[in-house]
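Supplementary Note 3. Input sequence used for the single-chain structure prediction.
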Amino acid sequence: MHIEKDIVVSLHYRLTDDQQQEIENSFGDVPMSYLHGHNTMIPGLEAAVEGKQAGDRLDVTITPENGYGEYVEERKQQVPAAAFEGLDPQPGMQFTADTDQGPMPVTVIEVTDEHVTVDGNHPFAGQTLHFEVEIVELRDATPTELEHGHLHQEGGCGHDHGEGESCGH
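The predicted structure, written as C-alpha cells, is reproduced below.
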C-alpha cells in the first residue's frame, strides 16, 4: 500500500528549525496519524510523503509557503485588558478568539495593566521547518472517517457530544 488520498497515515517525526533546534519529536512516543488528502496536514509534508509506504524514511525541508505560511504582522493585536475580565491571561496562553473572519486561534504574547497583545499567526509561521519522518503504518480510512474528513480515534472521535449523541462531524 502506498500513501494516496483517503489513506490513514501513521508516522513518527522529528521537527527542527533552521538552527537544528528540536521543536517536536514523536519518536519513542505515539505516532501522529492523519487522513491523507483532506487538508489536515501542512501541504509540504503531505506532498513529500505522497506515494511512500510503511517503513520509508525521509528528510523534508518545508518553506513557510508550504508549511504554516508567512508571518503576518497585522495578525498581532493589542486588546484592552478589560476584555479579559475574570480571566488571568499569561504569555504563552492560547485560546480561540471570535473575529470578523470567524474563530481564530491566538497566543497571548504580552500582558500589561492596559492591554493584552495577542498573535493570530501560527507559532511556526514564517519558519522553514525540517522534518525527519518515518512512515509507520498505512490503512484504508473507514467510511465514517471519509464522510467526516478526519480520523476517529479509538475511544471516540475527539468531539464533545451530549450523552447518547453521536458524532455529527
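The chain has two helices and nine strands. The radius of gyration is 19 Å.
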